[in-house]
Amino acid sequence: MKKTPQLNHIREQITSVDKSLLELLSKRRQLSLEVARSKEVDVRPIRDTQREKELLSRLVKLGREQGLDAHYVLSLYQTIIEDSVLNQQAYLQLRADQDGRKPSYTIAYLGARGSYSFLAAHRYCERREMEMQDMGCHSFDEIAQAVESGHADYGFLPIENTSSGSINEVYDLLQHTNLSIVGETTIDVSHCLLAKPGTTSEQISAIYAHPQPISQCSRYLAHHPQVKLHYCASSAEAMELVSQGDHTMAAIGSAEGGALYQLEPLERHLANQKVNQSRFIVVARKTVVVPEQLPAKTTLIMATAQKPGALVEALLVLKAHNLNMSKLESRPIPGTPWEEMFYLDIDGNISHADVQQALHELERITRFIKVLGCYASENVKPTRLENSQLMIEPNSSRQEQEAVTECDSARYSREFKTNVTEVLSGELHLGNGSLTAMTAINAEDLLPSVGQQALALREAGFQAVLINRLEQVTPDALVQLKQQLNHAGLQCILSVLQPADLAVLQPHADMLLLTGKQMFNKALLSQMGALHIPVILERNTMASEQDWLTAADLLLSCGNQQLVLCEAGIRSFSNPEELTLDLASLVNIKAHSHLPILVNLCYIKPQQRAQLACAANHLQTDGIVLPVTDLAAQRLLLTQLYQQRCS
Ligand SMILES: C=C(O[C@@H]1C=C(C(=O)O)C=C[C@H]1O)C(=O)O
């Protein structure tokens, strides 16, 4: 279609607004560096989450006045603050490094330009304004040797990936090097299908890629069985081959990397997991001193005595010194079958007394211990706002959970576990004392306009969508459902009505709901108990409270502790045709069980809904489920509930 002059004019305005936005962002960065300089003088911590909270709630309010929704403003500013914190950290770390600046730094990494390791190294240097001379290597050993021999200043080694887990080869290498870990960096890995310009998807008959991306994109590749796969030593090699080939070839790699080989993305987001990130460690010959204002991580390896409880004993030392362990890995020790070397990441600075004391104590009870490095942690956890703040004026206060008295030794009981179970799924947090709002909808009503509806539901104040009647939905449509809901910041809960659906639904759900109709199905309870994603157990309309808790116990006994109960109404004698909400059960369960509980109001008479929602809210229910009708009214009700919860 021909562009009208009006369109051109509007686009010019957008271009000019974008330019101003970038100028302002750059100015904000400069100011943030000035803050870092002042913190250097006053020796104040870089991160100030209280300030971030105040700033975010003010901006959310201001944004709303300008017609910008809270979630949009929040996610933009979380990104901006992450950048600001990482820049401040990089600045202070550079100031603390004694050697002074070099005109350029030689960086050893795996593969060639365009590989993910190259991108990680490039970003790390860019943030530090370090000029990078890149030295592509063929193996992790070659990287370590390049740094040890002085041919390179730093080496970049991938240590873990959110979809494929730890990279054992790198852990094994760390047992033998004299190098120190001096930094870490995490990059988003977004796999694209890359081809020469002008290529169409239909032309592709061969895909070239490194084994890691192939395993991370297995679901996409399974949908294209006719395409031949070629394994390459690195993503860069795959891209190079394709750039020299014809239009039947494609590579898997990043869009940024592809651009270095004049390749264009034909398709994006190929990875099975939505969040696909790789963490790299930076190694050097000399250790660094991490300024005390920065969050530090200390990585060590140790071999414990060959006796029962030796590892627990070592971990208790950390507990005694109040040190958090963010990672624990074990690897075999070559030449000594069945003996393990443990790798630990501890949140703490090696120059602090608590870390040093813990290390001394560990020396006494281990057979071998070595610190691999202490470095600034780049894990900037986004500061969040309470759900209530996203809906109404900032006014957060959390009510404490009631104390428990009665005991019971079943797995669901508070005697078995004193702390309340907290169930986490994306931003959704059940069991922390706040109220979560969910809505329920049938798949056939959601599918035709899922993107649009998802945004409206999020704006109405819901955090999750429970989808019913999924029997006829194809796997492709399920992918769409989850993607679009997650994109709008909503969690996708799929309801399992029959056992045969479980295998199909599970890969596309953030959480699963076992419907009340299946509550007595022991086989299904066991299957869902073996899963690693949160499960909601709905009460059968004819089940006693004890039946329901017995079902919960069976599920918990199979391993899955991320369990949520859901009261959706029972048949009572007063009105057997309609469901009655069993609020007495809610009180009982809150008092005697550590499991979070939801109240589903979809099957209750519409006239009673608002009143019962308020009652359930008073009783500290962890979440409510409302039907999808009349969103304006639901928004009002939710605002009222959040307000009630805060007062
Ligand atoms: C800029 C600062 O440092 C950090 C970054 C912030 C930001 O970018 O807004 C806010 C608080 C701190 O975590 C500051 O303390 O003001």
CA-CA gap between termini: 56 Å
Strand order within the widest beta sheet: 18-19-20-21-22-23-26-27
CATH class of the domain at 406-646, anyone? Alpha Beta
**What would you call the shape?**
globular
Whole-number mean pLDDT: 90
How helical, in percent, are the residues?
Answer: 25-40%
Domain Prephenate dehydratase: 106-285
GO molecular function, one term: chorismate mutase activity
Domain ACT: 299-376
Pathway: Amino-acid biosynthesis; L-phenylalanine biosynthesis; phenylpyruvate from prephenate: step 1/1
Structure description:
- The chain is an alpha/beta fold.
- Among the domains are: 34-91, Chorismate mutase (Chorismate Mutase Domain, subunit A); 192-270, Periplasmic binding protein-like II (D-Maltodextrin-Binding Protein, domain 2); 304-369, Alpha-Beta Plaits; 406-646, Aldolase class I (TIM Barrel, Alpha-Beta Barrel).
- Helix content is 40%, strand content 23%.
- The strands form six sheets. Strands 18-19-20-21-22-23-26-27 form an eight-stranded parallel beta barrel, surrounded by five helices. Strands 1, 2, 3, 4, 5 and 11 form a six-stranded mixed beta sheet that branches.
- Strand 1, helix 4 and strand 2 (132-137) form a beta-alpha-beta unit.
- Helix 21 packs parallel to helix 22 (631-646).
- The longest helix is centred in the first third of the chain and has 38 residues, at 5-42.
- It is globular, with a radius of gyration of 27 Å.
- Mean pLDDT is 90; it is low at 393-408.
- Residues 32, 35, 47-48, 51-52, 55, 81, 84-85, 88 line the site of ligand ISJ.
- Residues 106-285 form the Prephenate dehydratase domain.
- Keywords: Amino-acid biosynthesis, Aromatic amino acid biosynthesis, Lyase, Phenylalanine biosynthesis, Transferase.
- One of its GO terms (biological process) is L-phenylalanine biosynthetic process.
- Residues 299-376 form the ACT domain.
